Amino acid sequence: MFSQDLVEQFKLRETPFYHYDLTRLRETIKVVKSFAQEYDFDIHYAVKANSNEPILQEINQAGFGADCVSGNEVKLAAKVGFAPQSILFAGVGKTDKEINEALAIGIKAFNCESVQEIEVINELAEKANQIAEISLRINPNVDAKTHKYITTGLDENKFGINQIDLPELVTRIKDFKHISLTGLHFHIGSQITDMKVFQGLCLRVNEIQNWFTDHGIHIEHLNLGGGLGIDYLQPDEKAIPDFETYFNIFHQFLERKPDQKVHFELGRSIVAQCGNLISRVVYVKTGINTNFAIVDAGMTELMRPALYQSYHQIDNLTSHSDLRDYDVVGPICESTDCFGKSVALPETSRGDIIAIRSAGAYGEVMRSQYNLRDHHEAFYSQL
Known about the structure:
single chain; Lyase, Ornithine Decarboxylase, Chain A, domain 1; TIM Barrel; 8-stranded parallel barrel
């Protein structure tokens, strides 16, 4: 993963910064595309996972669409070159400004999460003299068996329309003359590693879709979300998730209607393993019960450990001594600013280069300037 030449380049750069391996990204995209095409599935990349333009350009060149959750993501996708008809706009709190801008761009569809949102889109589409295509994001009440902060498909989550509200919604939607209901959208969570969860999602989607069929509503496309997890424990040995099993489950258990399009909005599983946060050790501090490796990256650069108690493998790229345990911590004035406790690293010294792995998704996009932190440009490498 890290050649000696690459490490030498890291040493010359001001840290911390994100490193992206475009070769690994391309390899992952190739595998995704191969297995998706086998079943005629469409991929819309979840821009929220990583919105760096070089990353988006690689994904656009592969022929994937864009799944966006803000007006600025919609505009960026269009700017990078995604065709408007390949852009989907999701999210529970779309503003009037964002909706109007998306209508002007001519996106494929809005994924709607409440009756009131549909009312607003209908009103704004009428003013723009357009018919807005929409999908209903339905809450299937499927437990993703993942961290509670990234579970999105249960009844008590803020996302989606509950099934109990569907009869009233279907009755009312007939009055909206500037709305065209063409799809259903489901997304139950993120970092899902139990494949049986997706089988359960398929069975619930089949039930819900049959309900619409029974009510005389034809669904042109299904969006099954994303959520496929990666292996944070083995970023090199298992760099590419098991897309073959993932897509095969939907092929087996989803009751697809004739000529019906099926979409997936993959994010983390495509980009996470191509990104690493590169940092430098500024101090090594010996405590009473532990040693601290204090690095110049903090929760301002990578929020996930503080927010989700998430694990990221940590490598010392410049030391090859005997292993010792360290708490790897950042400089931010918060006790949660910790990347890992009792991390076994080669004996670590001031100036060593540290790589925090599997940080290509929900890493750089979530950074902040808390403590008025500086940010440095990302570094891209390829074979």
